[in-house]
Design goal:
By secondary structure, the chain is an alpha+beta fold. It contains 15 helices and 13 strands.
């Protein structure tokens, strides 16, 4: 049943040391540049946050005393964070939560504490909780503020519909209230998965099985038809996001506020990125064997499985943040997870992420992942050596290009928009993903060409593709076919004559 899928609940912070928090807020314009009088007298910017509050420490793959993510009192955040939207001000968040969270009207608004979770590149995230211990009431909720201009990236109404569906299936968190640009969600005890653990076999196998269960969700008889009939997201985004990329690049050029931005856009060459769209659309879908589980099944997909969107709980790993979820080709989710193994978004120094291409899963790790995935998805035992694993991996390799490409244009779209919590350099990130795309494309095409030259003589060009097909005879082979046919016919005739002679002799002896 879908309710058994441990894919869930809200983004949560990890503990952080006071010194690192001061460094984070000071370095990015936090406590050090807040001016007295710019905040409500009822708010206390010196309040020490409790990042470990309502966070469960679980197992070996969680809090290890280093690389903590940070939270900070919203009152101590710079003005650009509080001016991110109409509902990002502490007073507004406090008022909305006080009004909509069951049981909180019994407490004064001043007893609600708000901590900003310093993560998330699309939305702002806040932990809102009662400052004093109370029993019998909801102690903590997640307040989500949607990013600006998200309509370019996803349909807000569609996202809400998907969230409600997943909440009904007990996959997404419970929703207490929502409005224009905001949502109050259930809080769950958990810690986010760190990038350095994403390739651990224990983690790989859990993610693979959870992803397969999520992909089977759309096969439910009660799955909403309006979601089921959606166009595959990667195909749709190739059109919408690339168009949005052109618009955002033009907007950055017209703003003319930073010569460095114009130089970097010129270096990226947006025209080349846009021109790549048609080739990529054809490349990822060609040579379809139409075999279930080969990578092109259109299933309900997460589409953003990365470290901050995977939680560790007592009940296993869970996915969160479904704003990019939709119907899509199954190979995309797998390819995207492999790509995300190389990127760490918790870096606290410019450009606030790190990329290590050497951390891409090895061939053995990829086969392990796909074997576990198919065993769950097909509900049948699949081993690492199975040909179905090879077939799926061939498609996944193609969709790694789709992952790099879509996040490249996504980053250009986000560049002129307001920041969510830091100075994450979207253009730097776009350039990194585009460079990786071009490098991966060259490697894939060279591997295909090398395999094509190494194939047995007599195979036609049509017989070679990323999917296995039966060899086709060449014209020279067909010309050599005659003598073999003649020899076979003579041999068969000889056998028949011999058998007839034996029959005749036997009859004569009986007389």
């Amino acid at each position: 049943q879908a309710s058994s899928i441990t894919v869930c609940p809200a983004t949560l912070p990890l503990a952080t040391t006071a010194s690192k928090l001061r460094k984070l807020c000071g370095a990015r314009g936090g406590m050090t540049d807040m001016m007295p009088g710019m905040m409500s007298p009822s708010l206390n910017p010196s309040r020490v946050p409790q990042p470990e509050k309502y966070v469960e420490r679980i197992g070996a793959f969680c809090l290890d005393g280093a690389d903590f993510q940070a939270v900070r009192p919203l009152e101590a955040a710079p003005d650009k964070v509080k001016n991110f939207s109409d509902v990002s001000r502490p007073e507004m968040i406090r008022s909305l939560c006080h009004s909509h969270v069951p049981g909180w009207k019994a407490f004064p608004e001043e007893e609600l504490a708000i901590d900003q979770i310093c993560e998330g590149l699309s939305n702002q995230l806040f932990k809102v909780h009662l400052d004093k211990e109370s029993t019998g009431v909801i102690p903590c909720v997640l307040f989500r503020v949607y990013g600006k201009d998200v309509a370019t990236l996803y349909d807000g109404e569609q996202e809400l519909n998907i969230f409600k569906t997943l909440s009904k299936y007990q996959i997404a968190p419970k929703m207490y209230a929502n409005g224009d640009g905001w949502r109050i969600e259930e809080w769950h005890f958990a810690v986010p998965l760190k990038t350095k653990y994403m390739r651990n076999p224990s983690i790989l196998t859990q993610v693979a099985s959870q992803l397969a269960r999520l992909h089977k969700l759309s096969s439910r008889s009660d799955f909403p038809r309006e979601i089921l009939e959606m166009m595959p997201a990667s195909t749709d985004r190739l059109q919408r996001w690339v168009d949005g990329c052109e618009t955002a690049a033009a907007k950055l050029h017209q703003s003319n506020t930073c010569p460095e931005t114009a130089r970097r856009l010129a270096t990226m060459n947006i025209e080349d990125i846009v021109a790549e769209r048609d080739w990529l659309r054809k490349f990822v879908l060609e040579d379809d064997q139409k075999i279930r589980g080969s990578g092109l099944d259109v299933v309900f997909s997460h589409n953003d499985a990365q470290e901050n969107n995977i939680l560790q709980t007592h009940y296993g790993l869970r996915f969160i943040d479904f704003e990019y979820s939709s119907m899509d080709y199954q190979a995309y989710d797998i390819a995207n997870y492999f790509c995300e193994c190389t990127i760490d978004y918790t870096a606290d120094k410019y450009p606030f992420y790190s990329l290590s291409l050497s951390d891409f899963p090895s061939e053995w790790e990829q086969r392990l992942f796909c074997a576990i995935y198919l065993s769950e998805y097909l509900e049948s035992k699949v081993t690492l050596e199975d040909s179905s694993v090879t077939l799926l991996l061939q498609r996944v390799n193609r969709f790694t290009l789709m992952s790099h490409y879509l996040w490249t244009v996504w980053s250009v779209i986000r560049a002129p928009q307001a920041c969510t919590f830091n100075e994450f350099d979207f253009l730097n990130y776009a350039q990194a993903r585009w460079d990786t795309y071009m490098r991966t494309k060259r490697t894939l095409l060279e591997a295909q060409e090398k395999a094509k030259k190494a194939r047995p003589r007599g195979w036609s060009d049509a017989s070679f593709s990323s999917d296995r097909r039966a060899p086709a005879l060449s014209s020279s082979s067909r010309q050599k076919k005659g003598p073999y046919v003649l020899g076979g016919a003579l041999t068969a005739g000889g056998v028949l004559l011999g058998a007839a002679a034996v029959v005749v002799v036997t009859r004569l002896l009986r007389r």
